[in-house]
Write a structure and sequence with these properties.
123 residues; mainly alpha; globular
Length: 123
């Protein structure tokens, strides 16, 4: 029962965040939505950089822009949804480790000049 309450809580927070992003427009420099602290303080793109703008694009059905902002986040959404509704499928031994390794590789690649297309579009 406790697991069910946590899943409902996460789902409600996710819906509220989607509503805030839908109306908040993170592409606007005066937006109240937070900027990435990793990029702000360290000057490198983390795995989450551009994910708010990608979510904004997805909510406005601009799939190409969502992928351009953060392809890792867009590909991770099905796993997030499965983790909320079917937690046993993502508790398999190697799923978290695989996602972690993919995230580290993505962070390294998107900060290399050769893979400039993985970096989010600056607003």
């Amino acid at each position: 029962m406790q697991s069910f309450k946590w899943r409902i809580g996460i789902l409600v927070l996710g819906i509220l965040w989607c509503i805030a992003v839908y109306f908040g427009n993170p592409n606007n420099p005066n937006s109240l939505l937070p900027a990435c602290p990793t990029y702000k303080f360290l000057g490198i793109y983390c795995a989450g950089c551009g994910s708010t703008r990608a979510l904004y694009a997805l909510l406005h059905l601009d799939f190409a822009m969502a992928i351009r902002q953060n392809v890792f986040f867009v590909c991770l959404i099905p796993f997030i949804v499965m983790g909320i509704f079917y937690p046993k499928t993502t508790s398999v031994k190697y799923v978290p480790l695989t996602i972690l390794i993919a995230m580290i590789v993505y962070i390294i690649l998107r900060n290399m000049d050769y893979f400039y297309f993985l970096a989010p579009i600056k607003s």
